[in-house]
User: What shape does this take?
Amino acid sequence: MHRLSGYRPGLVDNATGLISREIFVNEDIYAQEQERVFARSWLFVGHESQIPNPGDFFLSRMGEESVILCRDRKGKIHVFLNSCRHRGMKVCRYDDGNTTVFTCPYHGWSFGTDGALAGVPFFREAYHSELDRSKYGLIEVAQLCNYKGTIWANWDASAPSFHEYLGEFHRFLDLILDGWDGREGQAELLGGVQKWIIPCNWKWPAENFSGDTYHNISHRSVDLVGAGPSGQSRRDYGELNVARKLHVTIPDRGHQTITYALPRDYQPQAAYQNSPEVAEYFRHCEEERRRRPGANSRLIGAPGEIFPNVALLPRQPRTLAVWHPVSAHQTEVWRFFFVDRDAPRAVKNFLRDYYIRYSGPAGMTEQDDMENWNYAHAASRGVIARRHPYTYEMGMGYAVENYEFEGLRMPGRVVDLTKAQASEEPMRNLYKRWAEFMEADNWDDLMTWRHVSAQAAQ
Amino acid sequence: MSGPVNIRTLAAGTRVVLASGAEAEIVSNPHDGVWLFARYLPAEGDPAGAGEEEMIFAQDVVEVRG
Assistant: This one.
């Protein structure tokens, strides 16, 4: 009798499209991926609008670990491990706030907002002034990037920059972070962060948001209810009916998304008819957007995933979600909602109501998804279930490079879903990259694009 | 020895006596109940230490002078 003790090559078999259930339910594999995936990847931490003033902080997470996103007294942004250097106690136990120091409640060690160890009780008496305080500041991430207001961090100094990590996928993230009218970096966070726990492995939602269009039957009831803000089923059917529906994957990065490419001469349709003010705002934005140069003016965003655990939803509700691993069998979801900074108050209020109705723990579609992931995970944990891999064979061999639609070029490998409706190319891309992280010993092996460039230059 | 001092209630400008006998004036209070930022006042035998700003640990505060 053999019981798998951890990751081994072959669990993700892209040649056959079969993927072992072990990668979802095996606790040893889960422990390994904390080191090999989460300690080496760029992870989303928060948004600069959460910490506008010196001393502001927001408690976030990177993988399983608690981190503090804060702005020091000089205005510089930092991300620190939320753990005292003396005995490891959390030095911050508030969700957010403003402070001059983070004081450990255990023995009283105190750290400035720049991470420096500022106060050590009985420093003169008990330590005889001999402790080198400069060695024991809060542990800071190796790399940090502020990308259009979003803060990303990485524990690995040898990882590529965030821009290089993202590659050409940035244009899909830009669909959230740029203004609806196409102006750069106009998004701001709307309200707080919704947080809740789902009893499933983090890869379930990551896979789903990578571009699972096959599961739309799960949301059929929402579409039938017709609770959309246009007073009908979906406001965007008009656009979707004339657009090319695509799966776009970036194979050497592990990012993937659904997107819709509009015809060159497409004119925006009316939407949000339930509210004249909101309808007028979006009509104006769509018009402006199409006037601006840039490939994104003809793209409609849709669910996507930045490897490993950040999901995009660039269309309304406009959100980023983070799938924080808690255990092999539990995921804590944090959903951040975005809106145009300059949008009228009435538009923001309207969108807030819509976002809550659609997404989040009480959102109509998110509830459908959680039900699926929850039960699929539970039904895959048993000894018999684990013997049988999942199939990801749909659409194998149908992805192409250099895809173009009426002059609009797409990066990476593309599957045209306009007729096919669905493929599992994005999931294969996600798990291929995941397996590469599990097997590669260093970032040099993971940056395959650099090797290709070097070879081409020779 | 009197009971513990609740340093969270102390405002900037308040003078406190420390376990060492030194006296200090509070510069700012982060209100975490553990630390104060304070400036040492001139003390007999240690005139050099006066004016130094330091973080004062709550357990070091033994008396409030007002």
Notes: The CA atoms of residues 22 and 44 of chain B lie 9 Å apart. The first strand of chain B starts at residue 15 and ends at 18.
